[in-house]
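in:
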């Protein structure tokens, strides 16, 4: 992990994530801090895999934890052939000016084996340099 970003490979699925503070959508006087995060998922393995669900654990500076789970990502359940990739941008708001996110994506392979690809912890903070996860 560098510059508050994450890069983890699990069972041939590489997940890179980075976040950026959105001052124009934030209101510190109202304890609202908005962040965008960009996710790139690459299938570096030998078998195709479909992302079925996600789980995010969001922790703010007051150690308040929020868990977000659901089907797919941004309304999709991407199918990744070997060498394939999928990229998306989403967002998160906090009531503190910094926090962290981490989690997992649940995948199933074409041979019906299932696994969770880890999303390593990354920082949500105004001081984190804007990123492209391919950096």
């Amino acid at each position: 992990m560098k510059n508050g970003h994450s890069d983890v490979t699990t069972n041939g699925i590489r997940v890179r994530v980075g976040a950026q503070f959105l001052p124009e959508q934030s209101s510190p006087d109202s304890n609202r801090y908005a962040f965008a995060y960009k996710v790139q998922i690459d299938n570096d393995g030998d078998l195709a895999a479909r992302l079925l669900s996600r789980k995010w654990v969001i922790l703010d500076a007051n150690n308040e934890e929020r868990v977000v789970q659901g089907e797919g990502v941004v309304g999709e359940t991407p199918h990744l052939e070997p060498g394939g990739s999928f990229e998306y941008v989403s967002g998160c708001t906090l009531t503190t000016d910094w926090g962290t996110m981490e989690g997992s994506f649940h995948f199933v392979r074409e041979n019906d084996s299932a696994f969770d690809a880890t999303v390593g912890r990354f920082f949500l903070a105004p001081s984190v340099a804007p990123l492209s996860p391919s950096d």
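note: The mean pLDDT is 92.
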